[in-house]
Design brief:
By secondary structure, the chain is of the alpha/beta class. 42% of the residues lie in helices and 12% in strands. It has two domains: 8-171, 3-Layer(aba) Sandwich (Rossmann fold), CATH 3.40.50; 201-281, Conserved Hypothetical Protein Ylqf, Chain: A, domain 2 (Orthogonal Bundle). The longest helix has 15 residues, at 202-216. The radius of gyration is 21 Å and the shape is elongated. It starts with 7 loop residues before the first helix and ends in a 15-residue tail after the last helix.
């Protein structure tokens, strides 16, 4: 499978971010905890290289807890601040607020020495499509101030959001990079839903997911779909089609329906907490 997706508005969004970076003290980058490396846009490292950096491992409730911890240590080892998060829950927001203050402590000290008081920390919120930036901002602010949607590319323009007297956030559209050098990155992005399903081969995608689950999470796969043995991914898809009664007219097996079901159940965490890459495998 070949994965390419770079609409024109993403080029414009990147240029805008390069302009806006001068206005901020901190870059808050959301990544998907199930694919923390593949869901990072390498352009963001270049754009934010002289700024304080905070990585939010969002959707960590859907990811393998042991791998969440491994990724936290990995990002801290690179000199970033890191927080694991479920952006829909208010619970993790205190930790985020505390880390923002810690990351910008030096800047606040400098301001105070210059006699600048009460200037809020300005943070740019960045990330690829569908990692949950708008959901994070709305939950953090406690009100719906950024549009949300579960399809990639809902946020189109930039908007400043005043959270409180201490923090202002700049929301930005999600941008992917022009070309995936490594097609496995494109595959992982497709599996979590960051590339529009309409342009993908869902059957192939489901087979790739089954292959990975057979190798890394066989028990979860067997338990969820009542499988007796894991011979190969095609046989597993056939068995799931049968076990879940995915049929067309005339009682013909509907493999496309079963494939869509597996992807949906992976993305919503119904199969279990699954991470698709680890720092050790890099």
């Amino acid at each position: 499978m070949q994965f390419q997706w770079y609409p024109g508005h993403m080029t414009k969004a990147k240029r805008q971010m390069q302009e806006d970076i001068k206005l901020v003290d901190l870059v808050i980058e959301l990544v998907d905890a199930r694919i923390p490396l593949s869901s990072r846009n390498p352009d963001i490292d270049e754009i934010g290289r002289n700024k304080a950096r905070l990585i939010l491992l969002n959707k960590s409730d859907l990811a393998d807890e042991k791998q969440n911890e491994n990724w936290m240590q990995y990002f801290k080892g690179l000199g970033y601040y890191a927080v694991r998060l479920d952006a829909r829950s208010r619970g993790g927001m205190k930790a985020v607020q505390a880390v923002i203050e810690k990351a910008c402590k030096e800047k606040m000290e400098r301001d105070r020495k210059r006699g600048i008081k009460n200037r809020p920390v300005r943070a740019m919120v960045v990330g690829i499509p569908n990692v949950g930036k708008s959901t994070f901002i709305n939950t953090f602010a406690g009100k719906a101030c950024a549009k949300t949607g579960n399809k990639p590319g809902v946020t189109k323009g930039k908007q400043w959001i005043r959270l409180n007297k201490n923090v202002e956030l700049l929301d930005t559209p999600g941008i992917l990079w022009p070309k995936f050098e490594d097609q496995s990155v494109g595959l992982r992005l497709a599996l979590i839903g960051s590339i529009k399903d309409e342009i993908l081969n869902i059957d192939e995608l489901a087979l790739e997911l089954i292959k990975y689950l057979m190798m890394s999470y066989p028990v979860l796969l067997k338990e969820r779909y009542g499988l007796t043995e894991l011979v190969d991914e095609v046989k597993v898809l056939e068995e799931i089609t049968k076990n879940r009664n995915c049929l067309k007219k005339g009682n013909e097996p509907d493999y496309a329906k079963a494939a869509a079901l597996i992807l949906d159940e992976y993305r919503t965490g119904k199969i279990g907490r699954i991470t698709l890459e680890s720092p050790q495998g890099m």
